Every structure is written in structure tokens, then in C-alpha cells.
Amino acid sequence: MIHKTYKLQHNLLEKKHNRTIHTDMAPSAVIKVAALSGSLRKYSYNSGLIRAAIELSKGSIEGIEIDFIDISTLPMLNTDLEKNGTYPPLVEAFRNKILQADSVLFASPEYNYSLTAPLKNAIDRASRPQNVWANKAAAIVSAGGNFGGGRSHYHLRQVGVYTDLHFINKPEFYLKAFEPPAKFNDDGDLIDEEAKNMLKQVLLSLQTFTLRLQGKN
Ligand SMILES: Cc1cc2nc3c(=O)[nH]c(=O)nc-3n(C[C@H](O)[C@H](O)[C@H](O)COP(=O)(O)O)c2cc1C
């Protein structure tokens, strides 16, 4: 797929020189991002962050496709139930979605100073052989209490060591969800413009790092 920015630059060059330009500049790839929310709550703020990221990817950012992956139906891991390296169909479908993705966006609420059980279960599920997280770029965002859910990031980063995830370091995104002015509406949609802009910076950083890891920039 030809990247719109590339096409625009190319057209401008052609206009400037009044001739057809043949450049070696490769069009940027579109990256596929798997997005997971650690909260199963219907009006979850963290799920709201993912919906806001999807909106950005369809509007002001080019070259990113975000797929919101539901982890609520994944059964709790019990290795006794694994049959010759195969997994229940729901789990296989989930693992396949992660495998197909170029990178991962985690919206990670903080439960008791850590990541949530549903998110850890999902990570464990996809880490069973073959570990499908390996070599993927990742970013963490969160909304929560006084630290904005930030303490969950550090446990999640630790989990990413053995699973071979590569997290962007900056910018860090922790949103203090309960401090005025309201950051979310009653449906859990992000309504704070400053937070949306910061989220955009996270996505741009994830995009750059994903392409760098893949040797495409
Ligand atoms: C079991 C449990 C533990 C929690 N522990 C913390 C915590 O350690 N730090 C914090 O800031 N908020 C904590 N919270 C509050 C959540 O961060 C808050 O409910 C947040 O809105 C959850 O994200 P969500 O809106 O996406 O569901 C906890 C909530 C629950 C249910």
C-alpha cells in the first residue's frame, strides 16, 4: 500500500521539477497493532484509551492499524488442559491475532500495584510454546488512581523480559482518571484533548520503534 505522505511528497517533487521522478525512497509500511485492555469493565477507562487510539489511527496518524482484541473470553490458564502443544480454539484464535500483529498496545490498569489478572492471563496464554510475543515492539498506557495506573507498567515491563517484548521508553502515559477536569465521559470515552495528544505521541513512538525493530526505517 502506498503511504499517503510518500505519495504527496512524490507528487510535490514531480511538480517542482516538472518531470517524472524515480526515487529509491520506499513507501512506509502500515503496521498492525494488537491492542489489549487489562480491564473487563464495560465502561473501563483503559478500554476507552484503546478506542481513542483507534480513532487517532483512523484520523490524524497514518500507517497504523489497531485491532482491539477481546481477552475477556480467555479461560484461566491450566497447563493440564493443553493437548500435545495445542490449545482450545478461542485461545488459538487469540494467539494467532498476536502472531499476526507487528506490535502491541497494552492499556494496563493498576490492581494492587500491579497489572490485572485478565491481562497477565492473556500474556501467559500467548507465551506458551510457541511464544508469540517474541520480538514485537510494545507500548503501555494506563488510566487510574493517584499514579494514573503507572505502577502496573513496571510489572508489565518485567513480564516483557522473558516474553521478549520490546517496550518503548518514552513518552510514558499515565492518566490520573479521577482528578478534575473529567478525562472520560460516562461511557468511558476519552474526552481530554491533552491526553489525546499525549496518546498520539505514544502511537507515533510505537510506530517508529516497530519499523526500526523490523529494519524498515
Ligand atoms: C482489585 C482492584 C485493585 C485496585 N488497585 C488499585 C491500585 O493499586 N492503584 C490504583 O491507582 N487503583 C487501583 N484500583 C482502582 C482502579 O485503578 C480503577 O478502578 C480504574 O478505573 C480501573 O480501570 P478501568 O476504569 O479501566 O476499569 C483498583 C481496583 C480494583 C478493582
UniProtKB/TrEMBL annotation:
The protein's required cofactors: FMN
Domain NADPH-dependent FMN reductase-like span(s) in chain numbering: 31-176
This protein's name: NAD(P)H dehydrogenase (quinone)
Membrane among keywords: no
One GO location term (cellular component): cytosol
A Pfam family this chain is assigned to: FMN_red
GO MF: FMN binding; NAD(P)H dehydrogenase (quinone) activity
Entry similarity comment: Belongs to the SsuE family.
Subunit structure: Homotetramer.
Superkingdom of source: Eukaryota
Annotated source species: Pisum sativum
Record's catalysed reaction(s): a quinone + NADH + H(+) = a quinol + NAD(+); a quinone + NADPH + H(+) = a quinol + NADP(+)
Task of the protein: The enzyme apparently serves as a quinone reductase in connection with conjugation reactions of hydroquinones involved in detoxification pathways.
